[in-house]
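Possible regression after last week's pipeline update?

I re-ran a chain I had predicted before the update to compare outputs. Posting the input and the new output here so someone can diff against the archived version. Not blocking, just want to make sure nothing changed silently.
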Amino acid sequence: MRATGDYGPFDAVTALHAQEQIARAKEFLAAAERLLGPLANKSPEAP
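New output (post-update):
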């Protein structure tokens, strides 16, 4: 998906594709937090 977005046609990745990938990422983070514990600082601006 990333390679398609980076190097494919401009409209190759739809909003639906992006929403699906965001949902998968959220599921992955939730699973990681269950296994490893919560993140110390969830702010994306944190160093």
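Follow-up from reviewer: compared with the archived run. The chain is about 60% helix and 0% strand. Marking as no regression found.
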